Amino acid sequence: MTLVIDCHGHYTTAPDAHTAWRDAQKAAFKAGEAAPAYPAISDDEIRETIEKNQLRLIKERKADHTIFSPRASTMAHHVGDQQVSESWSIHCNNLIARVVELFPETFTGVCQLPQNPQSDLSVSIKELRRCVEELGFIGCNLNPDPGGGHFTSPPLTDEYWFPMYEAMSELDVPAMIHVSGSCNPAQHATGAFYIAADTIAFMQLLEGDLFSRFPNLRFIIPHGGGAVPYHWGRYRGLADMLKKPALDGHLMNNVFFDTCVYHQPGINLLNEVIETKNILFGSEMVGAVRGIDPTTGQYFDDTKRYIDALPVTDEQRHAIFEGNARRVFPRLDAKLKALGHV
Asked: Which pLDDT value is given to residue 286?
C-alpha cells in the first residue's frame, strides 16, 4: 500500500506562548535589551495545537506522514542580527523536534536555518548539523533571499553558498528553497514573493553549473516550482540560448517540485510538463490558502484530491505520493523502514 507523504508542512499553529516570545524578542532587540527567557510549553499544549489542526486534517484527507518544519513566513531572517536569528531558529527547531517525538508515526522534522543577510553561513551550518545529527531531522529550508524581498543575496550558484552545500552533501540531506515574510511593500509574501523567489531560484540554477560540482545536492522548489512549469518552453529555450545542456540533464536530476498548487488545472499542467520523477506530493496545510474553493466545495489546499484525479498509472501515483520523497530524503526512507514501512 502506498504511503501518502506530504513533503511540505509547516507548524503554523504553534502555541501562543511561542509566538508571544518571538514578539518579545523582537521588541527587546529594538530596545537594545536582552530577550526574556523562553517560556515553558507543555506537551499537552503542543498536542492540542497539532491534534486540532494538522493531525485532524491529515486523517480527514487520508494522508499518512508529513515532513514538518517551522512556519516559513515567520523565519524572518531580515529581523534582528545573527544572534537573534540563531536563538529564534533553535527554539523553532526544538519545538518541531517535540512534535516529532510526540507523533513519530506522522511527522518528521526539517529545520529552519538561522540565516542573516549580513552574515556568512557558519551558524546556519552549525544548526543544520545539530538538527540532523542530534534531533534526527532529514533536511532544511534554505532561504535564497534572507533580506526579505529585496534580493540582495548572491545567486544560489555563488561560492557564498558552497559551505552549506558541502554540509548538505556530507549529511545527505536536501533543502527546500523557501523564502520567508516580505518586508518589501511591493511584494505580497505568499502571493508574489514566494512564487517569484521559486522562479528566480530555478533561473539562477539554470544559469550556473552547480550540480557538476555538487552532484548529490538536491533542492525542492515549492509551490509547484513557481512559474517554471507554466513557462517550461521559455526555460528550455533560455538554456539553449545560454549554451547550457538540456534541462533534463542540467538540472532535473537534482531539482524537484512539490504539488502545492491549489487547483486541478494547475496540477494537470505540472503533471503534463514535468516528469513524474521530479514531482513530490505537498500541501502546505495549514498554510497560505486555507479557504474553500466555491467552484468545488473543497479546501484549496486539499491537494491529495488533485493527485487522485490525475490520469496517471498506479506506479506514477506511488512515485508522487511516496517513492520520490523517500528517494529525495534518504533519511526519511531509513526512518520509515525502521517504523516498518519497507
From this structure: 85
